[in-house]
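During the reporting period the student researcher (J.K.) took over the structure-prediction task from the postdoctoral fellow and processed the backlog of single-chain submissions. One of the processed entries is reproduced below for the supervisory committee.
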Amino acid sequence: MAWTYDAIIGFSNGMLKGVELQKNKFKYTNLLDASLTLNTLSNYDENKTIISSKKRILIFDLNKKKVSKRYLIRETGNIIGVFKKNNVLVTGVDNGTVVVKPIKETKTILKKVTTGSQLSCIRQVLTLDKFATGGNENPLKIWDLETGQIEFTAKSPKPDMLQLKQPCYVSDIQFFNNNKVVVSHRHGVVDLHDPLSSQRRPVASCKAEKTGFVSLRTMPDYSDYEVIVGTSKGSIFHYDFRGKSTLPVKTFRGSTGSVKSLSCISYLNQMHVMSISLDCHLRIHNFISGDLTIQDYIVAKPLALLIKPDEATI
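J.K. obtained the following structure tokens:
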């Protein structure tokens, strides 16, 4: 990568900071001053990152520390996610519309896909020309980017023992290397789906009591059945879908605010979990022991965490 830091943090006021991992401390670099309402961060290439802000997409040059290109999404609602695929930007809007725009044209739109109302998450399917969506009462769907057609729709959860309808509120989506997909929900459920099978309901599920899941990551080059999940009450859970228990394998503690984003990262030649939370802290936990390795107060409210692509899969 052209940039020397290990991660980028995006704050609610639009400020960006680069983070370098040093022994027992973080080193910060100011990249962008507070200037907009930041929604999401994602990778563009080795020199640039994508910032979304309500209805705008900004391509930010990490070397020059300035915005190099701007796009406007003329849709009712705010942007909830953007990713770059080949020569297009794929943008999800919370009204349920996915807009596909060519990178070289700021005004042209190639395609619009209607995915259902109250969209909260859009995610690229690793190496394939597909993407996944989900939201409030809007279950996991996998779409073909070329045709705009649905290829997989998850079934609603089974009714509970009293035959009451179970909620569906997708907060995050991630893919394993074996093409299985894992989905976290704001009502404290994380589901494993196999789109290649005929089964539309989850093939495995894990649950947490009295909390909701807001962020999710798979572990790069580690396992196709394990995930880490950030909760609305500050805990980070490590789940393994191969076990018979729905309880977490371990819990990473220390946060008192909702864990907005998290990822795995190599630190001192060991796997660690880096996270940001609404108590305005950046933390690193040792993945094996679960112990808190470093934490730092970062003043403003962090919303997005972007790790070097060669360190973790985003």
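The committee noted the following: The CA atoms of residues 215 and 230 lie 5 Å apart.
J.K. will present the remaining backlog at the next meeting.
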